[in-house]
Design a protein that fits this description.
This protein is an alpha+beta fold and 171 residues long. The longest helix has 26 residues. Helix content is 45%, strand content 23%. The protein has a 4-stranded antiparallel beta sheet, with no helix packed on it. A 3-stranded antiparallel beta sheet has the order 5-6-7. It folds into 2 domains: 128 residues, PH-domain like (Roll), CATH 2.30.29.30; 33 residues, no CATH class.
């Protein structure tokens, strides 16, 4: 079965203030153009890959992965301007680390989707563990025990007297 995945990138709306600052600084020796280029290229290097089993945050400098089963909490933080643009920061937390998803559109829907995927993954693994547990071996039946006893007698490992004595227990 192939693994489903989706790749998300931060919205360019989240760079509104940097773009605005860059436009104002253009007359100042081209500093504004450099700022716009710098933040645009850094922003394009960020991606988030969500699969059936994990979430991976990738930047130009690092890559961070978290399994869905380990997700404990998903938080959303929004500034007032982010709410106007419909953006937010989604923070995914586990016991040992956290991943920040920057500039996400519709952060509430994304957070709910991630939490439901984490619950589904935990449920899937629990069912898989139940199926993989070995069944308790059943005790051999009457016929199996007689066959075993007969085999011992035929191989000469028990005497005919012992065979007859034990066989009476099964009748």
């Amino acid at each position: 079965m192939t693994e489903k995945s989706i790749t998300l990138t931060p919205s360019h709306k989240s760079l509104f203030w940097w773009y605005l600052l860059g436009i104002f600084l253009i007359p100042l020796f081209g500093v504004g153009i450099y700022l716009i280029y710098r933040f645009y290229s850094a922003h394009n290097a960020i991606s988030y890959r969500i699969t059936d089993h994990s979430i991976t945050a990738k930047d130009s400098k690092f890559e961070q992965k978290m399994d869905l089963v380990n997700i404990q909490n998903v938080d959303i933080s929004q500034k007032w301007i982010d709410k106007k643009f419909g953006l937010g920061l989604v923070t995914i937390r586990s016991d040992s680390n956290s991943i920040d998803l920057l500039g996400m559109e519709n952060p509430e829907n994304l957070a709910n989707t991630i939490m439901s995927a984490a619950k589904a993954e935990r449920k899937r693994l629990a069912e898989l563990n139940k199926k993989s547990e070995p069944a308790t071996p059943s005790k051999p039946g009457r016929d199996d025990r007689i066959d075993y006893l007969t085999g011992l007698w035929q191989q000469g490992l028990i005497s005919e007297e012992d065979y007859e004595k034990e066989r009476k227990h099964f009748e």
